[in-house]
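Please decode residue identities from the backbone states below.
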């Protein structure tokens, strides 16, 4: 029979997934804990972590260069968002002025401090962007509502009014575990995930963070260490949220939920993930079928929209990121651990003949 390009691509993708997916460890220049990673392509990626760590590779991980902002050794960089080999933002977490955002446009040779949190009660957890100049940062509740700051030029960050934010639940907060508790989609949509309360929830916005709605998820809840840690969207409707209880990271629990309506409702898949997971990502242009999730106890992949999962061989990680055109996934974790999972057959799935 005649096979369409889409069918050929789907078969190639399935053949790759049918094999033993396996991380390839990288030679890391640090032993610090890494919790942020941003995959630009199969050759360019950035990573971040505690003690002011910021790293960059431009040769597929053969070598990593330390590109940390100056005088940042006491900061914990939990999120990094990169757009190419030169432009990136990094977020440090903590109360008051320890929550900061730095920006570089020359590959980390110089950094500009573009945001310093001035409220001692606020604690920022993650940043996310629609493009290289338009983005959000969000933090835990102050006076009963989550905090949002927004930029339209990458340099000036201004608070978003509180009137469009639903009230937080008692004990509700976000987990700055992988830089992926906040994500953006399309040109105006954003979502963030929470935990630590009687219910685990996902907030959604369709107007770049000006107003928000919220929905419950079936993820485990009820303790300060349990809830939703990461979410991702394959498109504006199909998304996934993962988590669990990080104090029981090796145990299975209600740690996965899926949406097909933009985050209005969330349901469980056919199978749970094997253990607590702190990060999840979709393969770009995978039609919402292909996903990967990771946590300190291991990683898993799915090729059926998150209904069923199989293990990825290798150690566990705190954070992961898939390159925008799907050529590779990068992951980072304890003691400076860095790894790559290359996915060359996905080039066929995307109608491409080489890595991005």
């Amino acid at each position: 029979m005649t096979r369409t390009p889409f069918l050929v691509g789907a078969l190639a993708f399935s053949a790759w997934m049918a094999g033993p997916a396996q991380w390839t460890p990288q030679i890391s220049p640090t032993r610090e804990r890494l919790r942020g990673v941003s995959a630009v392509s199969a050759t360019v990626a950035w990573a971040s972590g505690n003690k002011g760590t910021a790293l960059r590779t431009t040769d597929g991980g053969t070598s990593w260069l330390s590109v940390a902002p100056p005088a940042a050794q006491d900061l914990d960089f939990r999120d990094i968002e990169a757009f190419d080999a030169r432009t990136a933002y990094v977020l440090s977490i903590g109360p008051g002025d320890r929550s900061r955002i730095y920006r570089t446009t020359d590959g980390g040779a110089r950094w500009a401090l573009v945001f310093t949190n001035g409220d001692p009660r606020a604690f920022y957890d993650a940043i996310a962007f629609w493009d290289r100049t338009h983005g959000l940062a969000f933090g835990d509740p102050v006076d009963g509502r989550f905090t949002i700051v927004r930029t339209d030029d990458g340099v000036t960050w201004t608070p978003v009014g509180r009137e469009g934010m639903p009230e937080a639940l008692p004990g509700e907060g976000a987990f700055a575990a992988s830089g992926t508790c906040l994500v953006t989609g399309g040109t105006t949509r954003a979502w963030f995930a929470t935990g630590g309360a009687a219910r685990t929830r996902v907030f959604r916005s369709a107007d770049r963070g000006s107003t928000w709605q919220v929905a419950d998820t079936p993820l485990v809840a009820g303790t300060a260490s349990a809830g939703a840690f990461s979410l991702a969207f394959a498109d504006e409707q199909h998304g996934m949220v993962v988590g669990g209880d990080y104090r029981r990271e090796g145990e299975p629990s209600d740690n996965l939920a899926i949406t097909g309506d933009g985050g209005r409702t969330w349901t469980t898949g056919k199978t749970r993930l094997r253990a607590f997971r702190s990060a999840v990502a979709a393969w770009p242009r995978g039609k919402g079928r292909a996903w990967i999730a990771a946590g300190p106890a291991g990683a898993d992949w799915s090729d059926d929209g998150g209904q069923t999962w199989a293990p990825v061989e290798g150690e566990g990680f705190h954070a992961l990121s898939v390159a925008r055109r799907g050529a590779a996934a990068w992951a980072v974790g304890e003691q400076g651990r860095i790894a790559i999972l290359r996915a060359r057959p996905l080039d066929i799935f995307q109608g491409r003949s080489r890595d991005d």
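Observation: The CA atoms of residues 145 and 167 lie 5 Å apart.
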